[in-house]
Amino acid sequence: MAKVTLEDGYVPTDDEPFMNERQREYFRRKLLGWKNDILREAQDTLVALQSENENHPDLADRASSETDRAIELRARDRQRKLTGKIDAALARLEDGSYGYCEETGEPISLKRLDARPIATLSLEAQERHERRERVYRDD
After folding, report:
1. How many helices (H) and strands (E) does the chain have?
2. Largest CA distance in the chain
3. CA distances from 20 to 14, 24, 124, 128 (A)
4. Are 49 and 120 in contact (CB under 8 A)?
5. Tens of pLDDT along 73-115?
């Protein structure tokens, strides 16, 4: 695959062919940057948790510290799941299915992909999905 260069400040627009080389490279860089940020934050959390081996004599301080630790670990678990979705989006970029709705096959809007690069459904399909979820959840 030829190396695609992107000028500084490039943002995909509807004026160009959907999912052309430049757009795919833009989203690939965006996804990889996001994943690297998550991995860096996870490493920082690990270092912080290892160094925070304090023995709090006060029961309230210990409880507060344990609560903070549990919240941080839950957040990291959500981030870990997110990296799986990022990897799946990168795989879709490779196989050419990135940017197309899994339900309808129609292109997902560039604005939606820019805001949520791991999106697999168009806005309309996502709304239908959420309405169905609400109906079944209320039963």
Report:
1. 4, 0
2. 64
3. 11, 6, 23, 28
4. no
5. 888 888 889 999 999 999 999 999 999 999 999 999 999 999 9
pLDDT surpassing 80 at residue 32: yes
Q: What is the pLDDT of residues 17-29, one digit of tens each?
A: 999 999 999 999 9
Domain ranges of the chain: 18-98, 101-138
- Rounded to the nearest angstrom, the gap between the alpha carbon of residue 17 and the centroid of all alpha carbons in its chain is 25
Residue at token pair 């080389």: 21
Listed in sequence order, the DSSP H helices in 7-100 are 21-51, 59-95
Tell me how far CA of residue 9 lies from CA of 26, 37, 97, in angstroms.
Answer: 10, 20, 25
Report the CATH number of the 18-98 domain. Answer: 1.20.120.910
Secondary structure of residue 107 in the 3-state scheme:
strand
* Predicted TM-score of the model (pTM): 0.78
User: Residue type at 94?
Assistant: E
